[in-house]
Write a structure and sequence with these properties.
288 residues; alpha+beta; BirA Bifunctional Protein, domain 2; SH3 type barrels; 2 domains; 5 helices; disordered N terminus
Length: 288
Amino acid sequence: MRKEKYKDPITLKEMSRFLSKKIGSCEIKIYDSLGSTNTTAKELAFSGAKNGTIILAERQTAGRGRYNRSFYSPEGCGVYMSIILRPEQALRDIPVPTLVTAYAAVAICKAIETTTSIRPQIKWVNDIFVDNKKVCGILTEAVTANSAVPQCIIVGAGINFTEPKGGFPNDLKDIAGALFNNDDKNIDKNNDRDIPFITMTVTRARLAAEIINNILEYDIFDESFNSESLLNDYKKRLMTLGGTITVKTANTPPYNALAVDIDAQGRLIVEKEDGEIVKLAFGEIYTV
């Protein structure tokens, strides 16, 4: 049993006020602390957890992003969650990971837009920014069992809802941001925990519920899914299209290119300085 020790707790009771009716049959597991919600989601997936199983944690002690980078996940300040997507058909036929990540990014942006006045932007492929600082990272992972064909996909997200008391660590303060800073809220200056005392209309529980609603609203694996509409929503929020970027991949030295478009699989189309067109399914990009 979880102890309700947070000023803005994420509880099933609070979330249920905002979850759509179709989410009612999904299992939601909420923990005080986990190493990583994606790791726990994988373990549950191997044990047969159903499509739409949701894992949330008040903090992560080993939160991680792409390339196994750590993701700072202090307690009571963020929405740290993973969702198991287990479609009916064989996953060899599913969209490429970049498209699933794009779907999750749009779902999270729409949840933020619905619950706040904030208008986030997406940095290809898996980061969400506000005021040029990263407020959310997304990690999409395939789960395989006894075959090379994935059995399901885990969509993990870490959203910095409020700044931790005292701010972000020195190595993150110039790049990490939050949807709300401590000046936006009524902060309990007398509590001895790094948890802001928040008085507001939107809560972490409501934001989590809206994200879940959006991700589970459609079956991205169904043949009838409108990927064209998704990509239009994605491109509208993309912060790099039309600009010059630096591309870094494991297979090539860094190079400058023009960010031209997003293709039907969610890949970033870039034009190198020599005119070569490249379609990126992975890699890092930086604004020049």
